């Protein structure tokens, strides 16, 4: 159960990162069709949020696969 819960929490955290960091950068740049004054900071925010999401998705994947492979002592 714990490993499945970790996977779920990581997927929820991925959504939090997207709506908190990625989507605001997308909106500020009109999906990267225009460059506002602070576009470099927005790009960095966008890249780091994608990297964090990728890491969280990897942890979720590992936790869920591990939960399938582990047996409760039987």
Q: Mean of the pLDDT scores?
A: 93
| Low-confidence residue ranges | none
**Major sheet, described briefly?**
none
- First-to-last CA distance: 15 Å
Share of residues in helices: over 70%
Q: Can you write the helix and strand succession as a string?
A: HH
Q: Radius of gyration, Cα only, in angstroms? A: 17 Å
The best one-word shape is rod-shaped
According to DSSP, the number of beta strands is: 0
Structural class: mainly alpha
What amount of the residues lies in strands?
under 5%
Number of helices: 2
Write the layout of secondary structure elements.
Elements: H1 2-28, H2 39-69
Structure description:
By secondary structure, the protein is mostly helical. The protein has helices at residues 2-28, 39-69. The model has no long low-confidence stretch (mean pLDDT 93). The longest helix has 31 residues, at 39-69.
């Amino acid at each position: 159960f714990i490993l499945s819960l970790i996977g779920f929490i990581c997927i929820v955290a991925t959504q939090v990162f997207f709506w908190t960091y990625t989507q605001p950068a997308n909106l500020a740049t009109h999906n990267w069709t225009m460059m506002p004054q602070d576009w470099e900071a927005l790009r960095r925010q966008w890249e780091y949020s994608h990297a964090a999401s990728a890491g969280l998705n990897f942890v979720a994947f590992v936790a869920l696969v591990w939960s399938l492979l582990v047996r409760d002592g039987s």
